[in-house]
Amino acid sequence: MLRAGALALRRGSLASHAALARSASTVADVTVNCTFIKPNGKRTTVPGRVGWSLLKTAQHHDVGLEGWEASPSWSEDYGDGPATAADHVVVAKEWFDKLAPMYPEEEKMLGYVEHVTETSRLAAVIKLSKELDGITVYIPPENMSFKGYNA
Which of 25, 30, 58, 129 could form a disulfide with 63 if both were Cys (CB 3.0 to 4.6 A apart)? Predict the structure, then answer.
């Protein structure tokens, strides 16, 4: 009787483990490939994670973007909005419509950027999702972190 109970417990444990394994994400499930085109034309593709910002991904891989992470509520970190446009990127047109809408604060900050395009965004507010796997962005030469940087 004790042996039958131990076997049932082990089977239950295996069933729980199998259910957990089916629900667990794999690395591929949470990886989003991002390509950064630097001012010198060099393309760098790096893996990001679902939920990270494009800025965090760039900084994690030392791509060369400056800036600070945006919080879910602009006012928590920035008061009236972001304090810099150093993380300005130009999103490839085929990816632009897949992004979340622009906050008014982001639009205002981009007003200070010299060469804004219709697909300009701040990397800090682009949150990665699987839908953005393969996103390509151009880092403009006036981006402060790229002055004199051609690696």
Answer: 58
* End-to-end CA, the chain: 70
Q: Look up the pTM and report it.
A: 0.74
Q: Where are the beta strands (DSSP E) in 97-151?
A: 120-122, 135-138
The residue written with tokens 């060469």 in the block is: 115
Q: Does position 118 have pLDDT exceeding 80, yes or no?
A: yes
Confirm if 137 and 88 have CB atoms less than 8 A apart: no
Q: Where are the alpha helices (H) located in 61-148, listed in sequence order?
A: 74-78, 93-96, 104-110
pLDDT over threshold 80, residue 36 = yes
**What is the third-level CATH fold of 26-146?**
Ubiquitin-like (UB roll) (3.10.20)
Question: Token digits for 146?
Answer: 């790229």
Q: What count of Cα atoms within 13 Å lies in the side-chain half-sphere of residue 86? A: 16
Q: Considering only CA atoms, which of 82, 90, 143 is closest in space to residue 118? A: 90
Q: CA 51 to CA 115: how far, in whole Å?
A: 28
d(CA 70, CA 67): 9
Nearest to 95 by CA among 124, 135, 58, 122: 135
